[in-house]
Design a protein that fits this description.
The protein is an alpha+beta fold. It is built from 13 helices and 4 strands.
């Protein structure tokens, strides 16, 4: 299971705060593509010795794209290989595949669409800084003696939630096989806010909706002995963390992040440019937003008069 997995495994930081290797966008897209094809071939067709109805329908409609008699006797794998060699199927190129599965099994269309959207997002995302340097800062939010066990419990749930968001747009098979993708850049914060606000239809972004609902349930159970009216509070906490992540991306140009709890909130943030990095180190905007968000969340589950936290920021890396 990927729940609670740290971003240190997917390229932001190791435990010493140093940058590790990253997966190029093209390699990630290729991996997603291969995962999709493997899932379709193994998940929707019987074996060659005992063809299922899907196989029969596939062979009937495959003739639309290949009239060569030998292909009708080939395996499904060979048919997919034929489509790729003819340029009818490729990374992010799924029109023919969608046309065939509309006639074979429409349940496959969800994973095809999901993979296509993910690849499109990856291709539109700059994965490397232009100058080849890394700009990483550490922000600590310390509540001092005001911190309580419930804070640690809530923070562990939120860290798990943030880490699981990395995988919300990947196909289910990719997540459960434990494949690591550098998807922190693609966190669906906007869609998460739409879901928590009830603005998204129930058939959209099922994986993200599931993660949010499971996190709401965990927070509810954590607050069982502390708060009576927990339902609204749980949603406020999730809304608060999603808003913070969204603003970190849009307002402060944060490239990646990693959250920890060690008797205080610790946030590692990486930036695209030296300008954004220096702006963060020299200003109070980002640190104040992070402190305000956690003060808001913790004051609800503690004494409303919880002390304003002490915030520090320091440079961890700005090098090639």
């Amino acid at each position: 299971m990927l729940n609670g997995r740290c971003l240190c495994k997917i390229g932001i930081l190791n435990i010493h705060g140093m940058a590790k290797e990253r997966s190029p966008a093209a390699a990630i897209a290729q991996d997603l593509h291969h995962t999709l094809l493997a899932d379709l071939i193994t998940g929707y067709f019987g074996n060659d010795d005992k063809p299922c109805s899907n196989t029969v329908r596939w062979k009937m409609h495959f003739k639309t794209y290949c009239s060569h008699p030998t292909q009708s006797k080939c395996s499904i794998f060979d048919n997919f290989d034929y489509l790729e060699k003819k340029g009818l199927l490729g990374v992010g190129k799924y029109d023919v595949l969608k046309d065939l599965f509309r006639r074979v099994d429409t349940t496959a269309l969800r994973d095809i669409k999901l993979t296509a959207e993910m690849i499109e997002n990856i291709n539109a995302t700059p994965f490397e800084n232009k100058d080849g340097k890394e700009y990483i800062a550490e922000i600590t939010v310390n509540f001092g003696k005001g911190s309580k066990p419930i804070d640690k419990l809530i923070m562990e749930v939120l860290i798990d939630f943030i880490n699981r968001l990395d995988y919300c747009h990947t196909p289910l098979s990719a997540r459960f096989r434990g494949q690591d993708y550098d998807h922190t850049l693609l966190l669906p914060t906007e869609m998460g806010l739409r879901i928590i606000n009830g603005e998204s239809s129930t058939d959209q972004f099922e994986a993200l909706r599931t993660v949010i609902n499971e996190t709401l349930d965990k927070i509810d159970r954590a607050l069982y002995l502390h708060i009576k009216d927990r339902n609204k509070l749980c949603k406020k906490i999730i809304h608060c963390i999603l808003t913070l992540l969204d603003r970190m991306k849009k307002n402060y140009k944060v490239k990646r992040w990693q959250f920890h709890w060690k008797s205080m909130v610790i946030v590692y943030v990486e930036f695209y440019t030296a300008f954004d990095f220096k702006t963060c180190l020299g200003g109070n905007g980002l640190t104040e937003e992070i402190a305000s968000a956690f003060h808001f969340m913790f004051s609800y589950v503690n004494d409303p008069q919880l002390n304003t936290p002490y915030v520090q920021i320091k440079e961890l890396a700005a090098k090639k």
